[in-house]
Amino acid sequence: MNNMGVDFLSIQIDADHASEIAKKLYQIKGVATPLPGYLDFNFLIKYDSASYILKIGRPDDDVEYLGFQQELLKHVANSDIQIISPKVFPDINGNFISEIKDQKGHTRKVRLLSWIDGRLWSSVNPIKADLLFNLGIQAGKITNALIDFDHPKAHRIIEWDIAQADWTYEYLHLFSKEQQEIISYFQIQYKAFQKEYKGLRKSVVHNDVNDNNIIVTADLLKPQVKAIIDYGDAIYTPIINDLAIAIGYAVMDKTDILESALPLVSGYHEEFPLLDEELKFLYILVAMRLIISVTNSAINKQKEPDNAYLLVSEKPAWEVLQKWRQIDSDYAYFSFRESCGFTAHPNETGFTNWTKNATVNFSSLFPTVGKEKIHPLDLSVSSTWTGLQSEFNDLDLFQFKIDQLQKLVPNKIIAGGYLEPRSLYTSSAYDKIGNMGVERRSIHLGIDFFLPEQTPVHALFDGTVVIAVNDEGDKEYGGLIIIQHRFNDFNFYSLYGHLTVASVEGKEIGHSVKKGDCIGHLGTYPENGNWAPHLHFQIMLSILDYTKDFPGVAYPNQIDVWRSVCPNPNLFFKNEHLEQRILNKDEAIVSYRNMHLGKSMSLSYDEPIKIVRGSGVYLIDESGRKYLDTVNNVAHVGHEHPRVVKAGQEQMALLNTNTRYLNENINEFARDLLSTFPKELSVVHFVNSGSEANELALRMTQAYTAQRDIIAVEIGYHGNTNGCINISSYKFDGKGGNGAPEHTHIVPLPDTYRGIYQGENKGAKYAAHIQEQIDIIKSKGRNLAGFICESIISCGGQVELPDNYLKIAYDSIRNAGGLCIADEVQTGCGRVGSHFWGFELHDVIPDIVTIGKPIGNGHPLAAVVCTQEVADAFANGMEYFNTFGGNPVSCAIGKEVLNVIKEEKLQLNALHVGNYLKSGLQKLQIAYPIIGDIRGQGLFLGFELTDTDKNPLHEKATYLANRMREFGILMSTDGKDHNAIKIKPPMIFSKANADELLSGLKIALNEDFMKKK
Ligand SMILES: Cc1ncc(COP(=O)(O)O)c(C=O)c1O
Prior knowledge:
Layout: H1 15-26, E1 32-35, E2 41-47, E3 50-56, H2 63-78, E4 88-89, E5 98-101, E6 107-114, E7 119-120, H3 129-146, H4 177-192, H5 194-198, E8 202-205, E9 214-216, E10 225-228, E11 235-238, H6 240-250, H7 257-271, H8 276-303, H9 308-311, H10 314-326, H11 329-339, H12 348-356, E12 373-376, H13 389-393, H14 395-408, E13 412-416, E14 432-434, E15 437-439, E16 443-444, E17 447-450, E18 456-458, E19 463-471, E20 478-486, E21 491-499, H15 501-504, E22 512-513, E23 518-521, E24 535-540, E25 553-554, H16 559-565, H17 570-573, H18 587-596, E26 611-615, E27 618-621, E28 626-629, H19 642-654, H20 664-674, E29 681-687, H21 690-705, E30 709-713, H22 722-725, H23 729-732, E31 744-747, H24 763-779, E32 784-790, E33 792-793, E34 799-800, H25 805-815, E35 819-823, E36 848-851, E37 862-867, H26 868-874, H27 888-903, H28 906-927, E38 931-937, E39 940-945, H29 954-966, E40 969-970, E41 972-974, E42 980-983, H30 991-1005, H31 1008-1011
Parallel strand pairs: 12-13, 28-40, 30-31, 30-32, 32-35, 35-36
Antiparallel strand pairs: 1-2, 2-3, 3-6, 4-6, 5-6, 7-9, 8-11, 9-10, 13-17, 14-15, 16-25, 17-24, 18-23, 19-20, 19-22, 20-21, 21-24, 26-27, 27-28, 29-37, 33-34, 36-37, 38-39, 39-42, 41-42
The structure holds pyridoxal-5'-phosphate.
């Protein structure tokens, strides 16, 4: 340990003195700025467009050590490996190590190094897998650069060398009981492997790749590690230690520290290939470095309680140690192997080869059943067989469906599921917060065989019972038996889950089982873990340190490790119907789409998502990952709402036809829908889309006024038909557009935040532009057909209309003989919370209201509601026929949507949750002024990202939406400048969902790119 009690410690060397030294010794005239240091005095000096670091040592500095440092830096700088490292400069006399005298006459050694510009790793946010990988690469390069370097001083005693960590043993008493348990856990293993550890490859290594020694480039979107600095602790030691150190520091503050460590291992391995025997120790070595760190802190805390620098890494180091202790050491080792491109489990290849000659018929599991064939059952997230979540969770219904299926295939066993992504498990017991938000276990690791309860289950191989428990709980195993099978050079385990409790009662651990023995019977719900009777059969090459149960389902991001630990049981059975459906990124789906679907159809997000299932407020991708949907106002009452699905299914089974026959559904739906409107709006025409609704509305205005000219709002969008595009400034003023057609007249977006009139009471000023356009139309010798406007302008960026705008606008239009259309395609059906329709916010009654998206909850259903007078004018003798509009299936669905809104009080929910979310956003705005404006009503909200001069920040909005998607939260951008974030989730959105959204936003808003000026 260092001797710290000497008088020179009280001497400070100030910046002026340092500037003087630099000038005198190196002719560098810049001003010195002190840098934090452990025991040296370090100063940054900028001079003549270059930057330097002046290092002034202690009087008792070891000259030989300093020489070692200088040699090492020269070696790295001159090596063939392409890395940036600090350069060393000689003084005016050609010395790389100079001397000065401090105030008390002590001689101190001085060195000058180049300063490497950039950001410190510790200040970078976020640190994502790419950057961790890149750190691994850089650390690997340093290993390569130092591999042929040595120096006597590299063999010194140093407390920071993991290979010398045994000095920490005697300080255990400095820690609490809980801390002692953690430290001893690692120390015991460290002690135990000394012999093999000492035999590992050695070299001089950097030995301090910590977050304050890593310099990162300034690029905030794709940061790279520029350099690793400060070789002061370099030491000759097992090479793997350097990676262990880098991991220990790089994973600090990460939620899932093992997951964060893996890209670092991959990167390092890519540059400096690691050996299996090194990976074996990595887990413990990471911990031992942190133990050195916390022990040092504990000692120094006693000596210098006020020195904040000494304590700087204590807290995060403890957090990592505590989390690291929770990770199974074998699991970590397997994960490291997988990151290096080895099979995660070292025995995987041996096992797979062995199974080539070890065929076992699956029927040997159930010899009394006498069935030799398999009927594969798809229970994956995209399976259409499983139906709704509620159906899947209805155990009687599920069993009924199995029984029905069994009747169709009486000679086969219904089975499947290896590596199947399943999203339908309800238990959230295994939900966890990972580095990218909530993670859920979904990948099934065994094969399920669906057979009647009490079916006897027999052992496939000789073995010994290692686990026999009643593993209770929702979707757990119930009766569970795990048998170990030993062969000459390896062993494996077989798992039998969902047995009766009686099957495990009295079963002794260590009890040997012979191939063909009956080991238990299939249970039924609830005792079997609460699912339909079936056997979950799984093979494991290790059982890690599980003693009660073993995961039967894995997190998707860990699949590559788990598929190796739990190989496919079909390796034995070799049954083509049990082959796994491999979950690989399907490039074909993108390339086919690019080639054969219209190119003008866009995909959301930089990395598109393949959604295969919807459920309430969630969309679920093919791996079972759930995304919180804050965008989709089409799934108004929730994705695949069971009542709406059922209404559609039932009517579909009964009849679907056009409206030329009498049908109750259309009348009932019309009646229910009209009951939500003021009495003046009393006639409805049903159509199939918002575009069709607006197209019809346009025809109505023309029929009523015999005019064609329409006034519409800037950045408005009203649909994709010819007529609708012609009135949609969002389209014709955007990319590929040709500006407003002759009969369309655009008035300014009434945006009181960034529009032409800002602030309070600007309704009349904006509305005056409507009169202006009427006058222009009239000046051309024509008159007006109508005015179309959304009640909150969505594509324009969720812009709320200013007070009185619509009232004055409607008056002007009506005075000129035109009709007023309220486009409620986005805002309708209770979304704005305080009212059922958005126009009601403005105390006006339109002549025509168009309704779309929400009313069908995803089914193509839309409507045009108008006054009797308008309807009569439209009915001029020409029949209005619509093949699909108003069909009984659509009407059944629409009716049910209205019922659900009412019965589940979703309008009220929109009001309460919307207000809650809006106030949460307002709180965020205080901390993150980049949120320029927050607006909207109910669950139709939005916010704009702007700088302090209200300039739109489109790139930040895009970044935010993409980051939120990475956290599992779907958001979208819009507005003229694409800088507005829209929030219009299903109306069942809860306060908890709002909290999840707000906390995701907070994380992203804190990131470097969002904070950049
Ligand atoms: C305000 C508004 N009106 C009309 C439409 C057109 O509806 P659809 O896409 O159902 O044809 C949309 C669609 O986004 C819309 O947002």
